[in-house]
Amino acid sequence: MAEVKEMSATASSADLEKAADASPKAPGVSPMGKHVDSNDPDEALKLVTGEVVILTPEDEKRLLRKIDRHLMPLLCIVYGLNYLDKTTLSYASIMGIKTDLNLKGQDYSWIASVFYFGYLFWEWPTNRLLQRLPLAKYSAFNVIMWGLVLCCLAAVKDFAGAMTVRFFLGAFEAAVSPGFALFTSQWYTKKEQGTRVGWWFSFNGWGQIVGGCVAYGIAVGTEAHPIAIKSWQLVFLVTGLFTAFMGVLFLYVMPDSQLNARFLTQQERVMAVERIRINQQGVGNKHFKWYQCKEALTDPMIWAFVLYSVISSIPNGGMSNYFSQLIVSFGFSENQSLLLGVPGGAVQIASLLIAGHFGDRFKNRILFGAGGVLVSVLGLFLILLLPDSNSGGRLAGYYLYQCVSTGFVALLGLISTNVAGWTKKTTSAAMYLIAYCVGNIIGPQVFQSTDAPRYRNANITVLVCMAVSFAILIFINFWCRRQNKAKAAIRASPGYTKVDGQEFLDLTDRENPEFIYSL
Predict the structure, then answer these.
(1) Half-sphere exposure of 1 (CA within 13 A, CB side)
(2) Interatomic CA distance for residues 333 and 349, integer angstroms
(3) Res 8: pLDDT
(4) In the prediction, which pLDDT does 15 show?
(5) What is the block-wise mean pLDDT of the chain (519 residues), using blocks of 10 residues?
(6) 33 with 23: CB under 8 angstroms?
(7) What are the φ and ψ backbone dihedral angles of 167, each rounded to 5 degrees?
(8) Minimal CA–CA distance to 158: which of 237, 102, 224, 113?
(9) Which residues contact residue 82 at a Cβ distance below 8 angstroms, ignoring those fewer than 6 apart?
(10) Peptide bond into 453 cis (omega under 30)
(11) In 3D, which of 23, 32, 25, 27 has the Cα closest to residue 512?
């Protein structure tokens, strides 16, 4: 059993002032203690005040398995639905929605892009609400609403209706990625977070596999046995209703934090908080702190995240909405393209799990994520350079391109592990995902109707974006190494003092010398 010892978990004002005065300064590292308020700590301090739990390896393994068993299935399935619900439009594009809605020219591209206008419009407010409101309950509300809004796409009759519904769909889905990053940082240690982010993000691939099979089944089934509604309408209804159902389940099962996790005993709740003390991040603070917002807006690492997000999302915005049409351009039929998209999902799953596993094993998620980006560049060269007659080779290039997610997931994981201070973390997540929106808005516009069916200019643009993305990942790796050396110098200096309970005082990564950046 875990051993419980009495100790002081809070720091006195005198301790904080002493630490602030004694801590040396270093470039890129804020002075520790300058903004610390011992009366406004992380929520975890409510649970661990007065005691610290000494976990045995057996206790920790057992607790980790229990946490995984209760959290990961829901996080994985809901995130897979997040991707599936976005890509239903791609399936609908070859199932008759363009003809039925009388779409012309770039109309389809704008319907694809407007999703991210809704996402962009609501991203900052939803990140503030994720911090302010109970995390699981607010997340569940958004899952339920996006499922119901997706059902509404089955009822649209024209371009204007589709634009309106897709805008609101984007607004409700804006909470998913930042919310799931917060769940991961709440419950898992830094060394565990990369693998867990890879697990739930890999369900994008499962979403593509299931979505392709469902869309194919509906397309073939409704051709053989016509029903009162169109096949593309049925796709929206089936996926939307199942998403809303999963949202209700999420509301009932998912805890807001360790403090109200019904699947844990009181002692296990303390243990679950204690095991993430090493993260130097706590489990949440609901008060907005302007200095942390300012720090996020002036941190070079955060801006490198943002630049990567916008540039790498241009290919994502185009490919996720045009991949069915792209496969048709390789020389396959429309129904065949629905099934041929399925292996792309399998490649994405494998690449994310492999990059996540080896990134954690060798303690460098950034470089393994960059490796996946290089594989995607190879795939784009195959699509661009192979002759039209080589359908199989170009299709193989599309499958290799699916490794591209490893870089995005590596950085999404680093928002969990490398950004501390809950206002800074939610602000950084908002900036990252606002940039994601901008890139995804641009992406579909790169695929011009005049370039159909080969979309050569679009594929060249995607190739350039991925090459630049690779260079940004290398810079982030260099920057984190440099900051770790600066912090190590501070900790080794004679005047440095560590404050008791420092892990749960809601310090930012830059002002906490004990914080070590993961690679």
Answers:
(1) 6
(2) 25
(3) 40
(4) 47
(5) 45 46 53 55 55 76 94 95 86 90 89 90 89 93 96 95 95 91 87 86 89 90 89 94 96 92 90 79 69 93 94 85 83 87 91 88 90 93 90 92 90 84 86 88 83 81 91 94 92 82 76 87
(6) yes
(7) -60, -50
(8) 102
(9) 173, 176, 177, 204, 207
(10) yes
(11) 32
The upper half-sphere exposure of residue 13, i.e. CA atoms within 13 Å in the direction of its Cβ, equals 3
pLDDT of residue 459: 83
If you ran DSSP here, which 8-state letter would residue 3 be given? E
CB-count burial class (<10 Å; 0-12, 13-18, 19+) for 386: middle
- The span from the CA of 4 to the CA of 51, in Å, is 7
- 403 and 376 Cβ atoms separated by less than 8 Å: yes
Tokens of 463: 């190739």
Contacts of 73 (CB under 8 A, 6+ apart): none
DSSP conformation class of 276? T
Query: Residue 153 and residue 277: Cα distance in Å, rounded?
Result: 45
Question: Distance of alpha carbon 82 from its chain centroid, rounded?
Answer: 11
Q: What 3-state class would DSSP assign to 71? A: helix
Q: Residue 445: CB partners within 8 Å, gap ≥ 6?
A: 106, 109, 113
Q: Give me the count of residues in the chain.
A: 519
φ and ψ of 52, to 5 deg: -130, 140
Query: Hey, is 26 helix, strand or coil?
Result: strand
Locate tokens 């204690």: which residue?
Answer: 274
H helix count then E strand count, the chain: 20, 2
For residues 346 and 344, give the distance between their C-alpha atoms in angstroms, rounded to a whole number: 5
Instruction: Provide the b/e sequence for 313-329 (b: ≥16 CB within 10 Å).
Output: bbbbbbbbbbbbbbbbb
Distance (Å, rounded) from C-alpha 408 to C-alpha 368? 11
* Pair type for strands 3-6 and 51-54: antiparallel
* Side-chain half-sphere exposure of 129, counting CA atoms within 13 A: 16
**Using the 8-state DSSP alphabet, how is residue 140 labeled?**
H
The phi and psi torsions of 80 (rounded to 5 degrees) equal: -60, -40
Cα R_g (the chain), whole angstroms: 24
Phi and psi (nearest 5°) for 409?
-70, -35
pTM equals: 0.78
Residue 51: strand, helix, or coil: strand
